[in-house]
Amino acid sequence: MKHLFLFALLLTSTVAARAAERISSFTPGAHILFQGDSITDGNRGRNSDPNHILGHGYVFIIAARHGATFPEARLDFINRGISGNTVLDLEKRWQNDTLDLKPDVLSILIGVNDRGRKVPLDEYAQVYDKLLAETRAANPKVKLVLCEPFFLNHLATLPSVGSPDADIVKRQEIVSKLAAKYGAALVHFQKVLDDACLRAPASHWIWDGVHPTYSGHQLLADEWERAVREFQPPTK
Q: Global pTM?
């Protein structure tokens, strides 16, 4: 009887979770724009070929799931991630690749190349802040989704808690503060990856410390959707 009760409870929780996933986080016809570096780029095509236009990563997975679940909403998913970009590169193309596209929802994942190219932390914060301010000025109603940069030691055989890279940790803190400042949803990718390493080695999720495998991209997509679905903007 006890086992039957537990099974019924599990089934109820599963049904409830799936029902929540069928509630769209976006208004019909919304333009959902993803910005960032190679993790977002996902080797996307640079033409209108629908097979490759969104790349082959978490952006593709998110768009595919929403497109299949809510075809009547006619959601427009756009990927403008560019491999190798830092926040300084985003600044140079912000007008053409973000503001001119008039997104209703803007998701940003940037920071790991800033670490690699030693963009100073204060400059990273200032430029990131400037881009968000410009976006809000152009559309006060835009919904912002800020994704924290992440890093895993892909050679590790034991799970860790938090990024093993001190610079990435500081950039995560900056993104968290900006999310609070602008009332943005914050996506904690690092914790999701850390938790996943309890189930399989880091190399199963990330193949070089930075770029996720297909399994890792699924984790990112699931966490992005969960964070956006559950986010409640602060009241003013």
A: 0.89
pLDDT in tens, 23-62: 678 999 999 999 999 999 999 998 888 888 999 999 999 9
Q: List the Cα angle 68/73/74 in 5-degree steps.
A: 80
What domain range includes position 33? Answer: 26-230
Instruction: Give how many domains the chain has, as a whole number.
Output: 1
User: Looking at 57-158, which runs of residues are DSSP E strands?
Assistant: 76-79, 105-109, 143-147
Give the model confidence (pLDDT) of 67-78 as tens digits. Answer: 999 999 999 999
Count CB-CB contacts under 10 A for residue 12.
10
In a domain, 172, yes or no: yes
Q: In what order do the strands lie in the sheet with 185-187?
A: 76-79, 31-36, 105-109, 143-147, 185-187
Distance CA 89, CA 84 (A): 9
Amino acid symbol at 137: A
